[in-house]
Specification:
single chain, about 575 residues, mainly beta, 2 domains, five-stranded antiparallel beta sheet, four-stranded antiparallel beta sheet, 1 helix, about 35% strand, hydrolase
C-alpha cells in the first residue's frame, strides 16, 4: 500500500506555536519556528512531514508550509503544499483550524503536531504498527524458543504470521531459525533462538524489522529485515551483545532508536544504558549513540519500559533495577529533541511494564508489574500492578493506583502463584479514546486445574471518573464462552499479551499466548486472538493459531513464549 501526503487537507485541529511578541497591527516575521507533523493513515502507518511557520501578519494569522513529506511511493515525494489558517472565525474546508485538541474529522488521516517540549496540548502515546511486508495489515512474530529444528532440540524458531483484512492467518507463514538461508549462525550451536524478539523499523524504510536474540551463548542480536516479501533477504548480526533492549523514538525525529543495557566506559563498577539513535544501516551501524550511567553497579539494570509519558511527542525511558534477589526502585529518563537526558527521576519498585493513556487526558501513563522488593520467586506471588499517571514532568509520584485481584470489580481472587501482571499491554479496545490494559495472569487456577492461566482486561476510565479501577474488568480464558480450547493444568494462558489493531477497524484486539498448551506433544503452545468492538472485547470470531496449524515443529516448542507485534 502506498504512503501518500494530503493534497486536499481536511478540517483538522492542530495547536499552533505561540506567536512572537508584537502588536496586533504590526506584522512581524518568525524565523523558521518548526513543528513536527505526524500523519497517520488509516492503516496505522506513519507519514512524516514537517510544519514551519514562515510569516505572521497578526498573532492570530500565519502561513505554514509542508516542507517535507515522505510518501514512499514509486513516483517520488508529493509536491510541496502551502496553506494559511486562522485561529478564529470561519475557515474554508481544506484548511487547518487552530484549536486546543489534536484530532481528525471525517478523514482516514490523523495529524499530531508537537513542538518538542511539553505544552498544554499533550500528544497521546503512539505505538507503530508491526507490518513486516508493509501491506497495511498488522503482523505477529511468535517465538517457539525450545522447538526442535533440523533434529537439533531446543534450537528454537520464530513464526511470522502475516495479517489479513480479517486478522492474522496461516497464508504466507514463515518459520525462521538459524537454519533459514541468510540468517547468520550455526544451527548446531544454537539454543533458544527467539528467546527475545523486538519488532520495529530500524532502517527507516517503512518496513518493520525484527530483532531476535537467542539464549545462552547464542545470544548475538540478529536483525531480520522487512521487505515487500516479509522478513527475507539480507540479515545482520549486530556487533555487540546485550540482555535487555527496547525501541522508541527518543529524540522525536520519527526514526526508531534502540536502547540497550551496557557498561559505560567498560567500568565494571557501574551499570548503564546506551541509546543508539536510528536509523540503522544494513551492516548494523547507527547514526550516533550515547551512553548513560544509570547506577553505581550495586543495582543492575533489569529491563526497559519505553513510551511518551510527558505528552511532548518524544518517547521516554523507564529503567528497572535490582541485584540478585532484590528489586530496587525504577527510574524515569526523559526524552527530548536532543536525546535522552542524563538525570533520572526515581519511581517506585517495578519489574516490567507498558505505557498507555488509560484516562484519556493525552498523557501516557506508566503501568508496571510491582513485585515489591524481592524478585527471587516472582511467579510465586499473587501479583500486583501499579498505574502512575503521566504528566508534563513524567509519571506522578502521588497520582497513582495499585490494582490486584483483590481490587473491587477485578475477577478472581488474589492467590499465591497467580502472577497477576506477568505480562501487560495497553490499547483502546472500544474506541472511546482511553486505553484498556490487558493483564496476563498465567498462574491462575480454575477449579481443580492449576496454572491454567487467564487474561484480565481492565477498562480505561476518564480522569474525572478517577481513572482506571477494577470497574468493568473482565476475565478471559479457555473456559470463556466462544474462546477455542479447554482450560487445562499448566497451560500458562496469558504468559504473553498484546493489544494491537489486527483487523484495521480502529480498535485494539487481544493476542494472548499459552506456551504450555498441549497439542500432539506436551507444551507445544498456542495463541488466541479476540477482537475489539464498541462494547469491548468480543469472543465472536475468536481465532487460535498453533504450530500444527502453521506446519511448524510442535514438540516442546512453547510456541508463544515471546511475542512481537
Amino acid at each position: 500500500m502506498r504512503r501518500w501526503c494530503p493534497t486536499g487537507l481536511p478540517d483538522v485541529l492542530v495547536p499552533p506555536p505561540a506567536p512572537p511578541a508584537t502588536s496586533a497591527t504590526t506584522p512581524s516575521t518568525l524565523d523558521q519556528h518548526s513543528l513536527n507533523l505526524f500523519v497517520t493513515d488509516a492503516m496505522g502507518h506513519d507519514v512524516n512531514a514537517s510544519l514551519m511557520a514562515t510569516s505572521w501578519s497578526t498573532p492570530s494569522l500565519f502561513a505554514i508550509e509542508f516542507l517535507r513529506c515522505t510518501t514512499f511511493t514509486r513516483r517520488g515525494p508529493s509536491p510541496v503544499t502551502s496553506h494559511t489558517f486562522r485561529s478564529g472565525g470561519t475557515v474554508p474546508r481544506r484548511t487547518l483550524t487552530v484549536a486546543i485538541a489534536v484530532t481528525a474529522l471525517a478523514t482516514p488521516l490523523a495529524f499530531f503536531a508537537t513542538s518538542g517540549t511539553a505544552s498544554a496540548v499533550p500528544v497521546p502515546p503512539r505505538t507503530p504498527m508491526t507490518d513486516f511486508n508493509h501491506d497495511g495489515h498488522a503482523d505477529l512474530a511468535v517465538a517457539a524458543p525450545f522447538g526442535t529444528v533440523g533434529g537439533v532440540e531446543k534450537a528454537g524458531y520464530v513464526s511470522v504470521v502475516y495479517g489479513t483484512a480479517s486478522g492474522p492467518g496461516t497464508a504466507g507463514h514463515q518459520m525462521i531459525s538459524r537454519a533459514t538461508p541468510g540468517v547468520p549462525g550455526d544451527l548446531q550451536d544454537t539454543f533458544a533462538f527467539g528467546a527475545q524478539t523486538l519488532p520495529g523499523d530500524l532502517d527507516g524504510d517503512s518496513y518493520t524489522d525484527l530483532l531476535v536474540v537467542g539464549g545462552g551463548d547464542s545470544g548475538e542480536p540478529t536483525v531480520l529485515w522487512g521487505s515487500k516479501d516479509g522478513l527475507t533477504g539480507q540479515n545482520t548480526v549486530l556487533p555487540y551483545r546485550y540482555s535487555e533492549f527496547a525501541l522508541g523514538d527518543f529524540n522525536g525525529d520519527g526514526k526508531r532508536d534502540l536502547v540497550v543495557n551496557s557498561v559505560p566506559n567498560d567500568d565494571p563498577d557501574v551499570s548503564g544504558m546506551t541509546i543508539q539513535y536510528g536509523p540503522f544501516t544494513r551492516d548494523g551501524k547507527t547514526r550516533t549513540q550515547d551512553s548513560i550511567t544509570t547506577d553505581d553497579g550495586s543495582s543492575g539494570l533489569r529491563s526497559f519500559i519505553t513510551g511518551d509519558l510527558t505528552g511532548d511527542g518524544v518517547d521516554d525511558i523507564v529503567t528497572t533495577h535490582g541485584f540478585e534477589e532484590m528489586q530496587h526502585e525504577a527510574r524515569f529518563w526523559k526524552g527530548s529533541r536532543t536525546g535522552v537526558g542524563h538525570t533520572a527521576k526515581a519511581l517506585g519498585t517495578a519489574y516490567s511494564g507498558t505505557v498507555g493513556d488509560v484516562d484519556g487526558d493525552g498523557y501516557g501513563d506508566l503501568i508496571t508489574r510491582d513485585i515489591g522488593s524481592v524478585s527471587e520467586v516472582i511467579d510465586d506471588a499473587p501479583g500486583s500492578i501499579t498505574i502512575q499517571y503521566g504528566g508534563s514532568t513524567g509519571p506522578s509520584s502521588t497520582r497513582k493506583k495499585v490494582i490486584t485481584q483483590a481490587t473491587a470489580g477485578v475477577p478472581g481472587a488474589s492467590e499465591a502463584h497467580d502472577a497477576f501482571g506477568a505480562s501487560l499491554s495497553a490499547g483502546d479496545v472500544n474506541g472511546d479514546g482511553r486505553a484498556e490494559v490487558a493483564v496476563g495472569v498465567p498462574g491462575e487456577s480454575l477449579g481443580a486445574a492449576t496454572g491454567t492461566g487467564a487474561v484480565i482486561l481492565l477498562k480505561g476510565a476518564s480522569k474525572s471518573a478517577g481513572g482506571m479501577t477494577g470497574k468493568g474488568a473482565l476475565a478471559y480464558n479457555q473456559s470463556t464462552a466462544g474462546v477455542p480450547g479447554v482450560s487445562e493444568s499448566g497451560d500458562d494462558f496469558g504468559r504473553q499479551v498484546s493489544l494491537s489493531d489486527l483487523n484495521k477497524d480502529g480498535k485494539a484486539d487481544l493476542t494472548a499466548t499459552a506456551p504450555g498448551e498441549d497439542g500432539a506433544f506436551a507444551d507445544s503452545g498456542a495463541l488466541w486472538n479476540l477482537y475489539g468492538s464498541a462494547s469491548g472485547l468480543t469472543t465472536t470470531g475468536a481465532g487460535t493459531l498453533s504450530p500444527v496449524k502453521l506446519g511448524a515443529p510442535e514438540k516442546d516448542a512453547q510456541f508463544g513464549h515471546t511475542l512481537g507485534g
